[in-house]
Amino acid sequence: MELLRNISQQPTNSNRMYEPNQPGSCELRRKRTEDHGHAPAEMSKIITDPATGKCYCRGKVLGKGGFAKCYEMTDLSTSKVYAAKIIPHTRVSKPHQREKIDREIELHRVLHHKHIVHFYHHFEDKDNIYILLEYCSRRSLAHILKARKVLTEPEVRYYLRQIVSGLKYLHEQEILHRDLKLGNFFVSESMELKVGDFGLAAKLEPAGNRRKTICGTPNYLSPEVLNKQGHGCESDVWALGCVMYTMLLGRPPFETTNLKETYRCIREARYALPSSLSPQAKQLISSLLAKTPEDRPHLDHILRHDFFSQGFVPERLPASCCHSAPEFHVSSPAKSFFKKAAAALFGGKRDKVKYYETLSEYINHSPHKTALANGLPPTTRDTIRLIVRGSLGSCSSSSECLEDSTTGSVAETITSVLRGCLENMPKADDIPNGTECSNLQWVTKWVDYSNKYGFGYQLSDHIVGVLFNNGTHMSLLADKKTVHYYAELGQCSVFSTSDVPEHFVGQVTVLKYFAHYMEENLMDGGDLVSQPDTHMPRLYLLQWLKSDRALMMLFNDGTFQVNFYHDHTKIILCTQREEYMLTYINEERVSSTFRLSSLLTSGCPADLRQRMEYSLNMLLQRAAESGWRDSG
Ligand code: ADP
Hints:
Elements: E1 46-48, E2 55-64, E3 69-75, E4 81-88, H1 95-109, E5 119-124, E6 128-134, H2 141-148, H3 153-172, E7 175-176, E8 185-187, E9 193-195, E10 202-203, H4 223-226, H5 233-249, H6 259-268, H7 279-288, H8 299-303, H9 306-309, H10 335-346, H11 349-365, H12 367-374, E11 389-391, H13 406-424, E12 443-449, E13 454-459, E14 464-468, E15 473-476, E16 482-488, E17 491-496, H14 505-521, E18 541-546, E19 550-555, E20 560-564, E21 570-576, E22 579-585, E23 591-595, H15 596-602, H16 606-626, H17 628-631
The chain binds adenosine-5'-diphosphate.
Adenosine-5'-diphosphate (ADP) binds at residues 62-66, 68, 70, 83, 85, 117, 133-136, 139-140, 183, 186, 196-197, 199.
């Protein structure tokens, strides 16, 4: 069959629509002059699949691999753009080379997953083998890291989550990738990550049967591969550790001036963990880079690690992240931009659905669920693991701990209010009509720096508070000049930032640091603003608690707020004019406020109800742990 025919018109734009061609009917004329020296002179711009007659237009070079050169390639009948690996037969003339390509094709063509580069089609003509892959216009993480040098922790969470998802699928198909590296994580136009390049991939064999060597050089060799004990799923997990390290620090963990030394470091799992990394990142890296394969975490456990649950995981990343660090902060007056950015960063129906599924699964299996349904007092077995906590006065010299008195009674009141509502509230599909909520104060930003100093937050009236690890609290008023200090509830000292008592200098510095950090780096968590109070903080934090899914905060005036990490929704319960009001801030950061009495009569949809139930469970767990219910 004649492969190259005459062409009367050359396509100039790969996005242009072409009339569908009949198989084998396109007229092509060989055109050599437009190759710009990228391709061998004999390779045509128009390529025809001899089996189907489909014609493709070869575009720009995307990159160069071991055997292949990768080109942008457009299907002329549909205008769909692919990334085409073109491998000259001359490059794979030896049987083992050809076998390698065939194996890659066999493994890759059956894979279908959102985070795996899609394999569309392959064919060959007398000169080349062609593999048509999903086109990833933003190239790879290696390219992104080259431009950026290092990535921020939220970005690393964003990419790692997708890598783990793709890898989990691969391992479920009993395929090992064996060459996980930044250059094999491709990025699509919409900034979605796709694991690609199955050149070194292999079927998972039982431990005894594994081949002890890999033909080819994986980038991130694990100790067991170096020791010729074979490559298992855990060796891919090791590579993930190297990838995470490299993204955060801009250099691989085992880089020395000579290969022998590098291998020694790998065998001993010896590498430096700079203090610039967060404690959670350090912990996760060290578990991924455990010397013994069995000590490394399973993929599911990675996503449940504190590195993910205690930090911000963007749902989307803007394309600007390819060349500059993202700013997760948007000034509050720019509301339309705010909403757009919020939608772009945190939208995503699929994950929402997943979240609801997990949440409802949790609630359905929770002993409280049955208890609530039966109207019985809920039991508090360890349904929620409370991870960290901080309380005002918790380390004070006072013999009567505030935890057991004031904080306890605030929490107890909220518990009974929430429980009463949940036990009696009917089911409803629609969200009831909201009411006006004047000057609600709530936490718009927070930072957990309790591994060092304490927990910082910013209120909607721009007052910044820090509950220090030593159990004291400081508020910086919106004027940024006045500090209110509480060592215990109700006992307040006030001073100016220009005249700080000597023994408070350190704490005030930290307070200002928190304020600055949140101003510069964090985005407001919702659309509700309140008037700055220049005289007195109405609200200060008594206690905060974290589970793996949510952060709960209790305030001196009885305000109670729960932030759900995953979809950024929030519940705020407060009293206004002797009435309990519940504010719900949804995924789009839009708030609605209800009188609790109207929720009680009209009911609320399942998503809000589930969040209220989860919040109640957190309170119950807190009570079980602190023992205030028993003692009081
Ligand atoms: P190797 O197997 O040696 O890593 P590949 O043939 O897989 O090389 O890829 C070579 C280069 O082509 C990559 O580094 C990348 O720049 C580009 N490339 C490969 N696949 C794609 C794709 N699906 N989308 C966009 N570019 C790609």
